[in-house]
Recover the amino acids of this structure.
């Protein structure tokens, strides 16, 4: 999340469309359905393309509205066409379903034809469907929706029956019963047709003719099905789902007077089903939906006169409202409330409503969000129809969802679960939005809302509560829209501070953005938030997307407004420095550092005394955050004092200073540096040591200094014992603490170190460099690199020699790549610390006597290609070596450039060029960056860079920042141009060999293409081609039996021969290049058992056959040797490639024997037993007049 990375939930890139641009293509797709439906492939391609087009409009479906009718008519033509086969009809309905999915059936449905003549054909189509066919559910879904629309025709269905005696003399079923039977049939299926059947029921049963004759029977059937089904079985769940959907839709669309007689019976049946105990989320949600519909049926649909109604909603008027206007609003609201009380009348409320409300309140605590959301909406809808007194009782019961006990002034024990808090917040927002929370209740609700904005309960390794905080922001948003500014005025300071804190300091991006939106709504609607516009500008929706920016930048700006300073500080101290996430704890302490200048006295007199006891408390997370907070606040206060020319202890009492010193002693005496807790305590106290040292605290000569030094040494010495995740952080913290401690407390007035202390420290650290544990070498290497100049004075050579020994690879420590990396980093840091003096002493400066030794050590690191089970660990060493070479070189250039010899500079640039051509993106990018940094450095320029002018043409200065070395497509076309520069040719070709012959597809493709492009350019230049070939042979010769290079080099040679890169030599007999290449290949695979190497060599041998002369027979002989190799896969590969080679280079064999040779190669089973294979091979030798290979006696 930090830095440039996008946090989960951050805004994604979306295409904002302005019209249905693919309308013509969609029309063509629909028009071609008759041609494509027959073939599975074409049919699926058409469907996928249609889905791809329509899905783009999921977020802007209204753009389809003008085209819906045209698409629907074209598809219905296919449906009505009697010549359309069933598969084509199903395809048309699939397209109709896709449109419905995007636009929604409520918008799309009214466009269907719904005349009297459509009823029978649709019924007949439905009758032909198989309810269990999984391939045609879209057809059934759309037909049921269509039928629900046709059912609205205002004619008695009995008129459609006519004579109910069929031709055969049997009675025919009435249309009403046919539709009901269809609905019942599809209410118990498991596919989406069930949802459409519920819609059909809701529209059909409420028809006057059906209601009178069929409603009671239908409800009896539904309730009996509900009673007989169990949510514990899959079949029972499906049936209950359909029944509940049908009832919910029926009670939603039916008239109250029609449904009321059955409501009590349905509620009783629902109670008996005990849906709240079901583990099926959808059933509980449907049960909640049905309960609220029943509740709305029990009470009259009358808007409560007592509800709160806000007047003007003009944002401009709100923003201009000042004191007098607010008072006027108060008086108007009071008068309106009194009038409403007078007009209130008694409601006749049935007893079942209590049961309904109780179930909804229980639903607010459900474990699933969709159930809680449905319950919250139900609470809002039903409360709006209740008398004032009963509504107040509901609100009182609702507030019980937020019960908590105050244990201490800042600690809250939440008795209810996070689910109850979330559901309760949603319900409060619904009530507020509807004006059902009267101003008299605001004082009860606001404290709950403020608690919910910071709700965060730890569960195991993480916490719950982000949904509660998000819902609390929704409450604030709803209240801003619901109430007059005068009503919320007493709570404005608390609400504004809480929203600012949530917008800036919440861990989750969605909560920060919700708080920012709620704050914006309050600023616009209420107009009373202090500095609202200024804060909104800094903390808008996009600004709060980056957590680091919120904590370290936006918070400082907002803390500049006095109304928010102390609440923000208190929140960080009370809620964030003890957070379960260590990242939040560390960010909080840095935020406290940045905010300290806004309230230094408050920090020194209130916050610091509160933190000191916490820093030695029992809770690990609180202790960790408090120590870091003490360190950051102390450093900020001391910097502030120095800026104002005051003593560093100006803001501190004697007790505070003593408390800071006691932290280490207390932790040490209680053995809190041990175990897993020690992984947090060690870096935290090291940070404290660093900050107190940087603050120049008056502790010189105090015994605490030796205690701090012990902790630093002990942390570095025991890095092996801590987890790998914490190791790097502990090491860096200890090294930073050491540098600050030495600079402040180990230097005397003359700027020198105590000789005894210097001798003890340097000797101890250098001796630890040869420790058998790699991590100890790492720690003390970095510690030596952090020592200040006065401690290195007179000991420089001892330190450099010690670090040099760490960089040397020996059989015992070949895998100690991290130690070698840290030693190389330390060498560069030491050089930068001591500085350069050409004629100075090698014990004090980088000078003529030691510069060559330093460069030799660093250049050794660039050749480290160690691999182990972790992969290319040598890459870490190479990366550190490249960085250190750059730092040392730039240091010398800026001080005494004459110390850089031409040979050294050439080595550096050549090695960097090689690394820039290699296969691993990360290291290639780093090498390229260092290469260009040295090339383009101007203060002054680096001397002796070979071919500087040509390099600056290849890599212009303006490209330095935009060239992406990570991208093979950008890096390789440029780096291959260095092949034309003699000084770089060998190293670039060596790097390219590994890339072109590698396994990564993108690296291989772009590196090979770049190399082949270069080879094409030099085909007409014999001297350039000759020089390249000599270099290529030299690379091969120098890396014989070095599998890291030789195996990919063989693969590269195979590709180059196949691409005709050496065609110039094919006309000359016995050209020295192919002869030498053949010799080297033969030597490389001698006695090799590496399958990959052997297979690559076969390709090279086959490619060498194109060269004329005596060597051709030698190549055949070598290939025939491989035809009888002990490995069957090698024999088979050789035969296959020789066959392809003879087809490609047909001139190498007499046409008279070509067919016979090809037949032997293709017909023989080369994976058979060796004696059989050898006989066939010898036939081939005799045929082609090549000497038979002889068996060597063992």
């Amino acid at each position: 999340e930090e830095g440039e990375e996008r946090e989960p939930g951050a805004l994604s890139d979306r295409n904002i469309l302005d019209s249905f641009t693919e309308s013509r293509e969609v029309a063509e797709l629909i028009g071609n359905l008759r041609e494509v439906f027959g073939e599975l492939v074409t049919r699926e391609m058409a469907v996928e393309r249609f889905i791809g087009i329509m899905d783009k409009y999921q977020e802007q479906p209204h753009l389809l509205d003008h085209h819906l009718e045209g698409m629907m008519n074209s598809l219905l033509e296919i449906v009505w066409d009697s010549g359309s086969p069933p598969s084509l009809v199903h395809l048309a309905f699939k397209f109709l379903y896709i449109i419905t999915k995007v636009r929604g059936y409520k918008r799309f449905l009214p466009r269907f034809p719904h005349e009297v003549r459509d009823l029978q054909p649709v019924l007949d189509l439905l009758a032909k469907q198989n309810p269990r066919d999984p391939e045609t559910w879209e057809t059934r879904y759309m037909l049921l929706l269509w039928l629900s629309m046709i059912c609205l025709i205002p004619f008695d269905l009995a008129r459609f029956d006519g004579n109910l005696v069929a031709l055969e003399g049997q009675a025919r079923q009435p249309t009403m019963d046919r539709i009901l039977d269809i609905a019942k049939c599809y209410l118990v299926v498991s596919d989406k047709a069930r949802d459409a059947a519920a819609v059909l029921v809701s529209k059909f049963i409420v028809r006057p003719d059906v209601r009178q004759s069929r409603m009671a029977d239908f409800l009896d059937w539904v309730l009996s099905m509900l009673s007989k089904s169990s949510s514990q079985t899959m079949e029972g769940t499906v049936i209950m789902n359909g029944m509940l959907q049908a009832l919910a839709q029926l009670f939603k669309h039916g008239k109250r007077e029609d449904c009321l007689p059955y409501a009590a019976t349905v509620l009783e049946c629902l109670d008996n089903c005990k849906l709240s105990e079901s583990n099926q989320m959808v059933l509980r949600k449907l049960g909640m939906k049905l309960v609220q519909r029943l509740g709305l049926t029990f009470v009259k649909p009358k808007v409560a006169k007592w509800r709160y109604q806000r007047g003007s909603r003009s944002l401009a008027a709100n923003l201009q409202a000042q004191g007098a206007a607010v008072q006027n609003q108060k008086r108007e609201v009071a008068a309106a409330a009194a009038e409403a009380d007078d007009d209130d009348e008694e409601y006749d409320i049935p007893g079942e409503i209590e049961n309904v409300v109780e179930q909804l309140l229980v639903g607010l605590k459900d474990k699933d969000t969709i159930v809680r959301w449905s319950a919250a909406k139900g609470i809002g809808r039903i409360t709006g129809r209740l008398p004032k007194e009963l509504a107040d009782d509901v609100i009182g019961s609702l507030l019980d969802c937020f019960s908590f006990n105050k244990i201490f002034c800042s600690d809250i024990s939440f008795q209810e679960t996070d689910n109850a808090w979330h559901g309760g917040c949603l319900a409060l927002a619904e009530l507020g939005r509807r004006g059902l929370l009267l101003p008299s209740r605001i004082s009860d609700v606001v404290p709950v809302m403020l608690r919910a904005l910071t709700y965060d309960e730890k569960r195991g390794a993480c916490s719950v509560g982000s949904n509660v905080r998000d819902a609390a922001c929704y409450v604030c948003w709803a209240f801003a829209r619901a109430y007059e500014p005068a009503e919320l005025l007493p709570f404005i300071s608390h609400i504004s501070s809480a929203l600012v804190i949530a917008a800036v300091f919440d861990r989750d991006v969605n909560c920060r953005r919700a708080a920012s939106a709620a704050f914006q709504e309050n600023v616009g609607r209420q107009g009373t938030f202090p500095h609202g516009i200024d804060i909104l500008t800094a903390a808008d929706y996009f600004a709060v997307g980056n957590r680091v920016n919120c904590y370290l930048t936006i918070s400082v700006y907002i803390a500049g407004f006095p109304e928010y300073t102390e609440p923000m500080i208190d929140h960080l101290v009370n809620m964030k420095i003890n957070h379960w996430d260590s990242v939040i704890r560390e960010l909080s302490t840095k935020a406290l550092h940045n905010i300290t200048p806004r309230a230094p006295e408050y920090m020194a007199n209130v916050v610091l005394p509160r933190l000191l006891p916490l820093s030695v408390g029992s809770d690990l997370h609180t202790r960790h955050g408090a120590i870091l907070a003490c360190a950051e606040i102390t450093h900020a206060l001391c910097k502030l004092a120095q800026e104002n020319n005051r003593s560093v202890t100006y803001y501190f009492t004697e007790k505070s200073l003593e408390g800071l010193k006691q932290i280490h002693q207390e932790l040490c005496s209680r053995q809190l540096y041990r175990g897993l807790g020690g992984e947090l305590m060690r870096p935290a106290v090291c940070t404290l040591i660093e900050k107190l040292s940087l603050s120049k605290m008056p502790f010189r000569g105090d015994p605490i200094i030796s205690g701090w030094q012990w902790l630093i040494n002990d942390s570095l010495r025991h890095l092996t014992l801590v987890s790998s995740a914490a190791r790097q952080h502990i090491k860096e913290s200890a090294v930073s603490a050491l540098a600050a401690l030495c600079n402040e407390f180990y230097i005397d007035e003359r700027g020198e170190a105590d000789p005894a202390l210097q001798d003890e420290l340097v000797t101890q650290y250098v001796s630890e460099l040869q420790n058998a544990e790699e991590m100890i070498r790492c720690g003390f290497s970095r510690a030596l690199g952090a020592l200040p100049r006065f401690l290195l004075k007179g000991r420089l050579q001892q330190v450099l020699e010690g670090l040099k020994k760490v960089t040397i690879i020996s059989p015992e420590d070949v895998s100690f790549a991290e130690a070698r990396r840290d030693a190389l980093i330390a060498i560069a840091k030491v050089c930068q610390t001591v500085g350069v003096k050409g004629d100075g002493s090698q014990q004090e400066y980088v000078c003529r006597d030691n510069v060559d030794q330093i460069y030799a050590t660093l250049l050794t690191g660039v050749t480290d290609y160690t691999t182990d089970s972790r992969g290319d660990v040598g890459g870490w060493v190479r990366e550190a070596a490249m960085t250190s070479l750059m730092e040392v070189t730039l240091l010398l250039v800026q001080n005494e450039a004459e110390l850089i010899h031409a040979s050294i500079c050439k080595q550096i640039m050549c090695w960097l060029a090689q690394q820039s051509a290699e296969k691993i993106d990360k290291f290639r990018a780093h090498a390229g960056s260092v290469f260009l940094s040295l090339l383009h450095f101007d203060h002054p320029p680096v001397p002796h860079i070979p071919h500087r002018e040509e390099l600056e043409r290849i890599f212009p200065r303006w490209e330095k920042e935009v060239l992406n070395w990570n991208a093979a497509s950008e890096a390789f076309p440029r780096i291959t141009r260095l092949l034309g520069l003699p000084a770089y040719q060998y190293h670039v070709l060596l790097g390219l060999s590994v890339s072109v012959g590698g396994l990564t597809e993108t690296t291989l493709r772009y590196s090979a293409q770049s190399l082949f492009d270069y080879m094409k350019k030099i085909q007409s230049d014999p001297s350039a081609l000759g020089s390249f070939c000599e270099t290529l042979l030299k690379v091969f010769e120098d890396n014989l039996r070095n599998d890291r290079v030789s195996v990919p080099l063989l693969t590269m040679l195979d590709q180059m021969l196949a691409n005709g890169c050496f065609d110039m030599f094919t006309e000359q007999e016995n050209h020295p290049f192919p002869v030498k290449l053949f010799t080297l290949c033969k030597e490389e695979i001698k006695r090799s058992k590496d399958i990959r190497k052997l297979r690559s060599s076969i390709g090279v041998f086959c490619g060498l056959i194109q060269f004329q002369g005596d060597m051709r027979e030698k190549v055949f002989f070598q290939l025939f040797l491989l035809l009888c190799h002990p490995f069957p896969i090698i024999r088979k590969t050789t035969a296959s490639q020789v066959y392809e080679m003879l087809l490609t280079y047909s001139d190498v064999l007499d046409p008279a024997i070509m067919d016979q040779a090809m037949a032997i190669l293709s017909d023989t089973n080369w994976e058979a037993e060796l004696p059989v294979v050898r006989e066939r091979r010898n036939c081939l030798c005799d045929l082609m007049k090549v000497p038979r290979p002889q068996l060597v006696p063992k």
Q: What stands out?
A: Residues 1039 and 1046 are 6 Å apart (CA to CA). The mean pLDDT is 90. The longest strand covers residues 404-406. The first helix runs from residue 23 to 31.
